[in-house]
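Reader question, answered in our methods column.
A reader sent in the components of a multi-part assembly and asked whether the whole thing could be modeled at once rather than chain by chain. We filled in our standard form and ran it. Here is what they sent:
COMPLEX SIZE: two components
ENTRIES:
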Amino acid sequence: MYQTINETISVLGVYARSHFVPKKFKWKEKIFPIKEITLYSDVRDGGVKKRLYSVVSGANVYRLEFNRESEKWYILEVWVE
Amino acid sequence: MSQRNGISWRFGLNKTILHVDINSYFATVLQQENPLLQNRPLGVTKGRGRTCLIATSKEAKQFGISTGMRRSEGVVLCPQLLCIPASFERCLDATKRLQKVFKTIAPSIYIYSLDEAFIDISDCRKNLYPDAKKLGKEIQNLIKKELGSWVTCNVGIAENRLLAKMASEVAPKGAVLEVTEENKDALLATTEFKDVCGVGYRLAKKLARFHVQYPYQIRFIPQEELAIVVGPFWAKELLKIAYGKETHLLNQLDRELPHMKSVGRSITGYRLHEDDAEITNILKNLCLEVIDKVRNMNLAGRQVWLGLYGRNEYWDTHETLQIPINHSSELLLWIQQLYTRWTKKFPVIKFAIRLSLLENQIQEQLLPQWQKQEVVQKALDDLNRKYGLFTIHPAAIPPKEELIFPEVTGFLGDRLYQLRDSD
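And here is the structure of the entire assembly that came back:
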């Protein structure tokens, strides 16, 4: 089941073919390298655009959010068996 | 008639329609997002705490778990069944991305539901896609490239939408099936009515009582006898289906609607509600969503409808107004008024409201009271647009964390609204 976290994080990534590709994120002073972006989705909250990334880091799956209005990154959820 | 690449062509007459159906969409998207869910039996519910399975993964289907079952029934068939809430907004985004992919194939496409689309390649088949089956395979690869390798789809190819959809329904998962003159009758003789677009559960059941299970059988039933059983409309429609011709329902897709005719919202509660305050709060919440949609499309409506459903009871009422409305304060007031008409009360499980007779809001009204309301509503719209939906809402509505937020339905009844940015 997904465990809700909803905390701000720092993200490091690269721009490739006019897209930002997150490569690693820092959460609770720990760095998580992103092995794979399994899916991204553009969603809206009213007029606020957000991009959600489902990513694999180590053996876990996380959902990250980039708020395009505030330009902040969040870790939303982590998959916990 | 000429022969080319093994395909018969009657220039200008033959249509070629592709129907793309993503396999187990809601479950597949969740599995694509999370590789730890792949190859596992998965049930998808509408939200946390819900028990009805609105979709199941390919693996769950192998255990006989199907859409519409309760979670508890699924667990009996497969104890390791995992149930996860659907993400409608992420699925809608995936559909929008698919729409873009389909538009690169042909200009004439129709998103039929969240996970289905028709692509009409009639005009470009001759020059671009002489081999439609090859195109079907290409589409499957394009979808994998866009959404991920776990996402598979069926592609049905035929001369019309009815047969194309039928073909993709009965094809094995991840297959491309083309309906030709040679296999058309076989398809009509082996596809059960439940897999025929437009034939509902009740009609299929009614026909089954007379041992009619396949469209082909209809050819041998006299029209008059059929009309007695299913009525004159369905007698005609069933005959069309029996010969693989497009039905009225699918022909309706060609109508171009300038805008939505009505915007409604319903929700089923987690429990029965008897408290007036609770019921009206839920209705007010639904009003906000309806008004947000209506205003986003620059429309206003003249008919307000309210429906309440109990365990076995149902009540509804409506009011047709002289002046169209599109302010939340106006709709809230009307819903409140309609609610007072409800006298024979019963515990409510499902709540529904609708604003219909929608028309374009082309002219502002001159009444000072209306103008004041418009100023307030515009301020609300701006703030909610900037800081997120329902950030600011009337005090009569519960706090934001208890609010009911918009949902996308699988059949995409509000496609004109949901896909408005992607056109």
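What stands out: The radius of gyration of chain B is 24 Å. Residues 16 and 370 of chain B are 52 Å apart (CA to CA).
Send us your own complexes using the same form.
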